[in-house]
Amino acid sequence: MFSNRLSDEEGDSVESPFDLILSRSELARQLKSVFQDLVTTGLVRLRVNKWLQISFCLPQKVHQVHFHRKAFIIEPEAIDR
Questions:
Q1: Cα(32)–Cα(40) distance, rounded to whole angstroms?
Q2: What DSSP assignment string belongs to 32-55?
Q3: Overall pTM surpassing 0.85 (yes/no)
Q4: pLDDT per position in the chain (81 positions), as tens?
Q5: Which of 7, 13, 33, 69 has the fewest CB neighbours in a 10 Å radius?
Q6: With 0-12 CB in 10 A as exposed, 13-18 as middle and 19+ as buried, what is 18?
């Protein structure tokens, strides 16, 4: 199983490279946020370097209707029509 922690030569646990990158890079944090937003809502809106606006939508994720806790998913082809 993959672990978020690495071991050095002496067997001591060191910080995960992913956590290290996230702590040092604004772009890495934004990319993580993009992934999380796509998974949860299907909508992405962010500004890169406080300048470039990026918006994205997964129609099949956004256009889900929930009837009595059962998800009714609208297929992408239906959205295109």
A1: 12
A2: HHHHHHHHHTSEEEEEETTTEEEE
A3: no
A4: 445 555 556 656 677 899 999 999 999 999 999 999 988 888 899 898 888 998 988 877 776 655 555 666 667 677 677
A5: 69
A6: exposed
